[in-house]
TrEMBL record:
Gene3D superfamilies: 1.10.1740.10, Winged helix-like DNA-binding domain superfamily/Winged helix DNA-binding domain. Residues 123-172 form the RNA polymerase sigma factor 70 region 4 type domain. GO terms for biological process: DNA-templated transcription initiation. Belongs to the sigma-70 factor family. ECF subfamily. InterPro entries: DUF6596, RNA_pol_sigma70_r2, RNA_pol_sigma70_r4_t2, RNA_pol_sigma_r2, RNA_pol_sigma_r3/r4-like, WH-like_DNA-bd_sf. Keywords: Sigma factor, Transcription, Transcription regulation. It comes from the Bacteria. PANTHER family: BLL6612 PROTEIN, BLL6612 PROTEIN-RELATED. This is RNA polymerase sigma factor.
Length: 416
């Protein structure tokens, strides 16, 4: 059966990718020229919608970025003029006149705003006054180019609630000068953490009917590539990009034909993305050659050991445990220690791993992961009744339906 023809106004994947790539650069140009981050961001979204409706039919202009800047500038100046008329304040008129330091390129012109505007916007979206959920939402909207509806769907939230979150975030950063902050190196870890959280939510959704949200993971990789292109010598940026690529390389094998979860040791490794693994290994090899080690480099190195193993039995758990020993000294968080406990169990036996879990009782008791790991180790140790109880407990705590089904299936398999 032939596929129905695409409607003229329906944007192609190529057009969507092009718009998403230019969105932060266009927003950066407008904010640098006019200020008014919140109004500029709305104007850019309108320009993106206009392009999505026109370009599939009329064709992509010779200079798409210049076209977007011109349309968005026109929308923004209309808004600013309306405000000027309402408020009768002469100083508002100054906002309508661009500073001489920057002139937006007309369609077809060669000149374009600096790619560095993407990184500047990331710093703005990860402002220290914003909460973590607000940083993530504003980053996806302003830098990722996603609509409010897309972000709300990705987070399983009502669109109105997400719109309020984004609006409050924009109000908080209102008046912040546009430019890379003087303490940008101190703020960079917050940017990387937001990108890491976006990727994790895409790779393993914390709630809902699907195990993965590929659009979020893909967006995190795209944005991290942009930061890496701007800061190629930064070890942790390189490590984060390598970690994402090495982890996402397994995505096709993580679910079965009905969306069910497939654990790492049962995955069909022929489905892993070899090109992504090769790129990730090359990146982490370069990053580890530097004298200073960071958490993302170490996590990427651990992922590389998994990805380079031809089978589960070929995995070098001693090397993984050694890397976790270094990681937990840098980041002694409960999740890192939980993952290290798994490595201890694989290297020295399930009883050794279970002993490691005792120190995590208070810190991870509310989530499902501690019970899930305990169940796995108890099953390996031969205590099937305790393992079944732990699997059931973990299933009751997770909000992810694929994880619930997987954990309940494991428990049912151990029933007398």
């Amino acid at each position: 059966m032939s596929r129905p023809p695409r409607r003229p106004s329906e944007p192609t994947t190529e057009t969507e990718d092009l718009l998403r790539r230019h969105a932060p650069q266009v927003l950066g140009a407008l904010v640098r020229r006019y200020g008014h981050f919140d109004a500029a961001e709305d104007a850019v979204q309108e320009a993106l919608l206009a392009a999505a409706g026109q370009w599939p039919e009329a064709g992509v202009p010779e200079n798409p970025r210049g076209w977007l800047i011109k349309v968005a500038s026109r929308r923004l100046t209309d808004v600013l003029r309306s405000e000027e008329a309402r408020r009768l304040r002469e100083e508002r008129a100054a906002a309508l006149t661009p500073r001489d330091a920057f002139t937006a390129p007309p369609p077809g012109a060669d000149r374009a705003p600096s790619e560095d505007d993407t990184l500047t916007l990331l710093f703005l979206c990860c402002h220290p006054d914003l909460t973590q959920p607000a940083r993530i939402a504003l980053t996806l909207r302003a830098v990722g180019g996603l609509t409010t509806a897309e972000i709300a769907r990705a987070h399983l939230m009502p669109e109105a609630s997400m719109a309020q979150r984004i609006s409050r975030a924009k109000q908080k950063v209102k008046g912040t000068s546009f430019g890379r902050p003087e303490n940008w190196e101190e703020r960079l870890p917050a940017v990387l953490h937001v990108l890491y959280l976006i990727f994790n939510e895409g790779y393993t959704a914390t709630s809902g009917p699907a195990l993965q949200r590929a659009e979020l993971a893909g967006e995190a990789i795209r944005l991290t590539r942009t930061v890496h292109a701007l800061l190629p010598g930064h070890c942790e940026v390189t490590g984060l990009l390598a970690l994402m690529l090495l982890t996402d390389a397994r995505r096709a094998a993580r679910t079965g034909p009905h969306g069910e979860l497939v654990p790492l040791d049962e995955q069909d490794r022929t489905l892993w993305d070899k090109a992504a693994i090769d790129e990730g290994v090359a990146l982490v090899t370069r990053a580890l050659a530097r004298p200073q080690l960071g958490p993302y480099q170490l996590r990427a190195a651990i992922a590389a050991v998994h990805d380079e193993a031809a089978s589960p039995d070929d995995t070098d758990w001693q090397e993984i445990l050694g890397l976790y020993d270094i990681l937990v000294r840098l980041v002694p968080g409960p999740v890192e220690r939980l993952n290290r406990a798994v490595a201890v169990a694989m290297a020295h036996g399930p009883e050794a791993g279970l002993a490691e879990l005792a120190s995590l009782e208070g810190e991870l008791s509310t989530g499902h992961r501690l019970d899930a790991v305990r169940a796995h180790l108890l099953e390996r140790a031969g205590d099937t009744e305790a393992a079944r109880t732990a699997y059931e407990s973990a299933a009751a705590k997770t909000l992810s339906r694929p994880e619930q089904r997987y954990l309940r299936a494991r428990a049912a398999r151990l029933a007398p």
